[in-house]
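Changelog note: in this version the structure field was regenerated for every chain. One regenerated record is shown below for reference.
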Amino acid sequence: MSDNALMVQGGELTIPEMKAQIDKIQQLMRDIMADGIHYGVIPGTTKPTLYKAGAEKLGFVFRLRPEFDITREDMTGGHREYEVVCKLYHMSTGAEIAQGVGNCSTMESKYRYRQAKRVCPACEQETIIKGKKEYGGGWICFKKKGGCGMKYADDDSKIIGQKIGQVENADIADCYNTVKKMAKKRAHVDSVITACAASDIFTQDVEDFKSNSENGNQSTKESEDNKGVDRKTDQNTKGKKTDNGRHYTDKEIKADCRRGIAMLSKLLKDKTEIGQMIDHLETSNREDTITMIEALKGKIAAAQEAQKAMDANKPTSTQPSFNDEDSLKGTPGEVHRTGPAGAIRAD
């Protein structure tokens, strides 16, 4: 009997067969799956969270084919909710192995709201900043942010009359496809964990609900490494608000992750994991990218310690680093959050 057919044989599993299935999952985690790509430990949790990429790998190993039943509910205000049932079938026998359920709604805060900023009346870009008093004060449409350079008085009603901060997302229809795919992902992960009897190894898509908890909908205990960081996100700017009040775009966060991957690449001789990270980054969503950066911090710190041990007898040791303002810093030192997604800096 094939190892991959353990779950579809007739009758109950023997203890050795059950142990073989658990061993196969753990071997897959060790040899194929990568921390930060296929799974990852979310701060404040103890068990690894299974990501979509990891669920796909487990399904491939155990020959599980997913089918999705999607139910849509149209809500007031143009909002929409999707409920998805994922059924897993064994590819060889066609037997139904397990089901999983997931739902997602545009009423979730990360889709419902956006962070409104002041818009220039002339060019209609969100590039208005407060002018410094020594240069005359007022409001300026900042050219370095893509603005037109127009200036406005301190009391100009066209500027101060604008509503800023958290507002309802007027373009909620732009999120319909996103919430449908998120519901599918949640259902798929749920079904794979159920099929593999792996809930003692993995938890489910905690990263999907993390943004909601930090927007006040749930209470999540943050680890010491996360203190002072506000991960409130918005749909319009897709920005990340940190303790300095700046909103980081998805592009900036992915750039930060690429710098971390480049740094880790310089520290490692085996580049296999680096290639997997690069491939995953191309298709990762915002939450997955942030989780990758969290994982990168630990991997870089461990690689640096290993390098320090190797270089203990050398007079000097040079580590790779990044030079831009919001980046991961590669020299050994205290790890804390400053740049996008909680980058590593050395004091």
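Spot check on this record: DSSP finds nine helices and eleven strands in the chain. Confidence is low (pLDDT under 50) at residues 1-6, 206-246, 319-347.
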